[in-house]
Amino acid sequence: MNKSMIDILACPIDKNYPLELFEVNYKDNIISEGVLFCPKCERFFPIIEEIPIMLPDELRDKKQEIKFLKIHKNKLPGKIFSKANPWHL
């Protein structure tokens, strides 16, 4: 995901703007892994292989996202891995 996209993205659940961006792996303004976080509904949306996964809860892959959280737990703020919706560690 190009870092400049944060300026146009809103939460797909409650349409809140702006979203918070937490970068895990990035180079030259391209985020290969990270998290978008909506402070209003407290949902996180992972960025995996440069793609922000911004789907409704019922279409999300819980197994993939829990694995993502476990791998990056030490690089993300506590509110992401311990309290974020729709699931957390």
- Poorly predicted regions are none
Largest sheet: 4 strands, antiparallel
**Estimated radius of gyration:** 12 Å
Categorize the overall geometry.
globular
Give the overall pLDDT as a whole number. 95
N-end to C-end Cα span: 25 Å
Number of helices: 2
Oligomer: single chain
Beta content: 25-35%
Overall tally of structural domains: 1
Overview of this protein structure:
The chain is α+β, with helices and mostly antiparallel strands and 89 residues long. It has one domain. It contains 2 helices and 4 strands. Strands 1-2-3-4 form a 4-stranded antiparallel beta sheet, covered by helices on one side. A hairpin with a 2-residue loop joins strand 1 and strand 2.
Based on the model shown, name its key terms.
single chain; 89 residues; alpha+beta; globular
Please provide a brief summary of the model.
21% of the residues are buried. Strands 1-2-3-4 form a four-stranded antiparallel sheet, with helices on one face. A hairpin with a 2-residue loop joins β3 (44-48) and β4.
Task: Map the helices and strands.
Blueprint: E1 20-27, E2 30-37, E3 44-48, E4 51-52, H1 62-72, H2 78-83
Antiparallel strand pairs: 1-2, 2-3, 3-4
